[in-house]
Design brief:
Blueprint: E1 14-18, H1 22-33, E2 38-42, H2 45-51, E3 58-63, H3 71-80, E4 87-91, H4 96-104, E5 107-112, H5 117-149, H6 153-163, H7 168-175, H8 179-193, H9 198-209
Parallel strand pairs: 1-2, 1-3, 3-4, 4-5
Helix pairs in contact: 5-9, 6-8, 7-8
Length: 226
């Protein structure tokens, strides 16, 4: 058996395996550890939920049919808690509705058992790479939110109008301030947000607010006016 080495940038990544069959857990542990990856195994979904730390990078290899909490139920619990982890689902009795439900709640791949070793390893490595991308994106989004929090109340207000597409003259008229005052606010906003252009600034606001952006969108609460 020719197993390819992992292509995972984050050496701290862990493959979490949830399966009620001890023989399957042992087999998967051996297979995944054989290419140098960390593995944690669990006999049930509830055991995994009790111990899982979402701060830990990794992916989840999950059996569907288990006593008590099924694999699909575990997926829904994770979704409800807002925990995002790439999930590889395995089942001996798969069907289209089951696959659709699994994908809806975070599965990046759906296997019917038995699974070829190399195929599973390939998808595990892809899932770990995807998890790394998600975490990097989350860090970038948090950095934008942190910068937004440094805006004053007036700067936040001006930013909302900028995102709405208003010119400095129009913003000045709506706020009852001069064109130069608006331009000064805009310069400070660009600096605090580390934006190199207005389109860049708008993209950042869309990142933290979603498509319903602008002055009327629900925005992170800014600090008190300076």
């Amino acid at each position: 058996m020719n197993l390819a080495p992992p292509v995972v940038a984050n050496e701290a990544a862990t493959v979490f395996v949830v399966d009620d069959d001890p023989a399957v857990r042992r087999s998967l542990r051996w297979l995944i550890e054989s290419i140098g990856l960390r593995v944690r195994t669990y006999s049930s979904g509830s055991e995994f939920l009790d111990e899982y730390d979402p701060q830990l990078p990794g992916c989840l290899v999950l059996d569907v049919r288990m006593p008590g909490m099924s694999g699909l139920d575990l997926q829904e619990r994770l979704h409800e808690r807002g925990r995002c982890i790439p999930i590889i689902v395995m089942t001996a009795f798969g069907d289209v509705p089951m696959a659709v439900r699994a994908m809806k709640f975070g599965a990046v791949h759906f296997f019917e058992k038995p699974v070829k070793d190399q195929e599973l390893l390939d998808h595990i490595q892809t899932a770990l790479a995807e998890d790394l991308k998600w975490r990097e994106r989350d860090q970038q989004d948090q950095s934008i939110r942190d910068r937004y929090q440094r805006l004053t109340k007036r700067e936040s207000e001006v930013l909302g109008y900028v995102v709405d597409g208003d010119s400095s003259k129009e913003i000045g008229g709506k706020l009852g301030v001069s064109f130069k005052t608006v331009e000064a606010h805009r310069a400070k906003i660009m600096k605090k947000m580390a934006a190199d252009s207005v389109p860049h600034l708008i993209r950042m606001v869309l990142t933290i607010n979603g498509p319903d952006q602008g002055r009327t969108a629900e925005e992170p609460p800014p600090p008190p006016e300076e």
